Amino acid sequence: MFSYFIKRLLMSLLTLVxxxxxxxxxxxxxxxxxxxxxxxxxxxxEKVQELREEYGLNDPFFVQYFNWVKGIVxxxxxxxxxxxxxxxxxxxxxxxxxxxxxxLPAFILGIVLGLLLGIVSAVDRGGIVDNIVSFFAxxxxxxxxxxxxxxxxxxxxxxxxxxxxxxxxxxxASISGFLSHAVWPxxxxxxxxxAVIARQTRSNILEVIQQDYVRTxxxxxxxxxxxxxxxxxxxxxxxxxxxxxxxxxxxxCGSIIIESVFNIAGLGNLLLRGVTSRDYFIVQACVLLISFxxxxxxxxxxxxxxxxxxxxxxSWR
Length: 317
Known about the structure:
Blueprint: H1 2-26, H2 34-39, H3 45-54, H4 61-75, H5 88-123, H6 128-142, H7 145-159, H8 175-208, H9 212-219, H10 224-247, H11 250-253, H12 256-261, H13 267-277, H14 280-308, H15 310-315
Helix pairs in contact: 1-14, 5-6, 5-8, 6-8, 7-8, 8-10, 10-14, 13-14
C-alpha cells in the first residue's frame, strides 16, 4: 500500500506542477498588456514600463514562473493585483470562506439526495418515483443554472418575499441571516451535483443487478435488501466515487454564475473579475487553488477505490 500511495502522490504533484505551468502561461499568450489596461491609454510608456518592472513582467518567462512559485511555497504569497495593488492572499482569505460556506452544504446536499434518490429510482425502475427522479435529474442537467437562480429570485424574492433579493451574510454574524441568504444559492449549486450522481447511481445499480452473482444470490433466497446493500451497492458506487471527487472543486470555486447572479463576493466572483479585467495574478492564483483541490480530490478518490474494489486492494501489497 505504501508504494501505491507514494506513486499516486507523485503523480498528483506532477499534475499540479503541469497545471501551474499551464495556468501561468495561458494568461501570458493572450493579446494585450495588463499593465496598459490597468493604467489606461493616456499614461506615458515610461510609467507602464516602471510598473512592469515592479511586477517583474519584463523578466523571462521561467524567471517569472520560478519567482511566483517560490513566493507561494515559501511565503504563501500569490502576488498583488495589477489593477488595485491588493494582496491576492488577503483577497483569497476573505472570499474563500464565503464560497466554502455555500459550496460545502451544496456538496453534501447534492451527494445525499443523489445517492438516496438514485438508489430508490433504481429499485423502483419504471415506477412513479423513478419517473419523477429521472424527470428532475434531466431537468437539472438541461436547464441552465442561471435560469434556475433567476426564476427562484423572481418567485421567492420578488413575488413571495420569502428570501432576500441578493447578497450574503456570514454565519458568524447571523445564522438566520445566513440561512435566508444562502438557501436558494445552495439549492441552485446542488442541483447539478444531485442530477449527475442520481443518474449515475441509478445506471450503475441497474447494470450491477444484471450480473450473475446477483442473480445467484437472489436464487439462494437472500433478501433483496441484503443483496442491494451488501452485494450491489458497493460495486455500483465505484464510478460514483469518481464523480463525487470531481465535484469537490465546488468547495472552493462554488459557482461563478450563481455568485454573479446573487452578487456574492466569493472566489468564483474573484476569478471572473480577474478574467474580465485581465488581472494576471488573480487568475493564476484562483486557477492554481482550484486545481490544487481537484488534484487532492482525485488523489483521495484513487485511495478510496481500494476500499470498494478488492482487485485494487490486492495491488497495494
